[in-house]
Amino acid sequence: MAIGGGAPISVQSMTKTDTRDVSATVKQIKRLEDVGCEIIRVAVPDMEAALALPRIKKKIKIPLVADIHFDYRLALKAIEAGVDKLRINPGNIGAEWKVKEIVKSAKMRKIPIRVGVNAGSLPRDLLAKYKKPSPPALVEAALRQVRILEDLNFGDIVISLKAFDVPMTVEAYQLISKKTNYPLHLGITEAGLPLLGSVRSVLGIGLLLSEGIGDTIRVSLTGDPVEEVKVGYEILKSLNLREHGPTIISCPTCGRCEIDLISLTKKVEKKLKNVHAPLKIAVMGCVVNGPGEARDADVGIAGGKGYGLLFRKGKEIGKVKEKDLVKELMEMVENLIREMTTG
Questions:
Q1: Going by C-beta distance under 8 Å and a sequence separation of 6 or more, which residues neighbour residue 61?
Q2: What distance in Å separates the CA atoms of residue 41 and residue 203, rounded to the nearest whole number?
Q3: How many CA atoms lie within 13 A of 34 on its CB side?
Q4: Across 29-45, average pLDDT
Q5: Local structure of residue 9 (DSSP, 8 states)
Q6: What does residue 30 show for φ and ψ, rounded to 5 degrees?
């Protein structure tokens, strides 16, 4: 899968299982594949985990990235296992000859390397120089890793600079985007539980993408990685950068709302769980403004007291009882998908 160079911005995640547990890891990756994860990274803390990589790779469909620190032998074993990318920092691998061995093997297999820095683990000399984690410190640390690879004539590189602090992360990416043309992997690290973590990620990643910065993203949440992928796609969809599955347009409700719109929207969301077509579906609570507010939707419903309107492309096409709204909406969705697939 291509990253950068005009390729679509990819959505990736990282497993939260023990990589040595092949069954659990594959099961989680398959769940991520089902929601559209395009690249998956796994931690490789020891040789037992490295030896599990071929079995994992064999059972999944998406590119596999091995996340490795300190031990060059793990990187060599991961390359031998057929991984699609390495996530290493050459600076913590040790002696130069060890890094050379990794680079030589990666070159031979045409495997890219992602280097990255984290505000929580900056080199001591840079902390002393800048007094605390800062955008310039993150950039200098990242370019230091890049130079190690460049000095070995290796240029198939992806860069990431992550922090919990959103303004710091955004500024760091802005700075490095002016200093290098390597693809950039975006993320807000240790963002937190799903709600707050999503907010922080949307702000940081969204700001950068809106400026044309970033080639691949990962939303880091303390929770189910499936939610990371879902949030990632919502960021891209909101910026009109990718189409992926249905988008529900729903109003926040007000005093004019005469139906249980929250319950209705949840039912629609559940029904759309296995729909992958890039449709815009409106679920509105007001027959006065609903069709107009959702004029760009492919199909939608606007509820009234005991009944609701059905509409398509902002035009009213029918009126049904409230209890039949979800059923009628899903029939419209199915008809639209049928039309799309038959041309």
A1: 33
A2: 23
A3: 12
A4: 96
A5: P
A6: -65, -35
Q: Of all residues in the chain, what percent carry a pLDDT higher than 70?
A: 96
Compute how many other C-beta atoms are within 10 angstroms of the C-beta atom of residue 232.
31
Torsion of CA 63, 180, 163, 71, to 10 degrees: 60
Calpha distance 112→161 (Å, rounded): 17
**Average pLDDT, whole number, for the chain?**
90
Instruction: State the Cα–Cα distance between residues 58 and 233, nearest whole angstrom.
Output: 26
In order, the DSSP letters of 70-123 are S-HHHHHHHHHTT-SEEE--GGGT-SHHHHHHHHHHHHHHT--EEEEEEGGG--
Predicted confidence at residue 45, as pLDDT, reads: 95
Residues pairing with 222 in the sheet: none
Phi-psi region of 141 (alpha: psi -120 to 50; beta: other; left: phi over 0): alpha
Kindly report the backbone phi and psi dihedral angles of residue 285, in degrees, each rounded to the nearest multiple of 5, phi listed first: -100, 5
Residue type, 257: C
Using alpha carbons only, give the angle 320, 308, 287 rounded to the nearest 5 degrees.
Answer: 150
Are the C-beta atoms of residues 231 and 202 closer than 8 Å to each other? yes
The neighbour count for residue 29, using CB atoms within 10 Å, is 23
Match 């045409």 to its residue by tokens. 110
Residues 6+ away with beta carbon under 8 Å from 27: 17
What is the C-alpha separation between 10 and 38, in angstroms, rounded? 6
What is the pLDDT at residue 342? 75
The pair phi, psi for residue 145, each rounded to 5°, is -65, -40
Handedness of CA 70, 76, 81, 84 (dihedral sign): positive
- Residues in CB range of 228: below 8 A, 6 or more apart: 13, 218, 219, 220, 221
Task: Tell me the two tokens of residue 230.
Answer: 């879902």
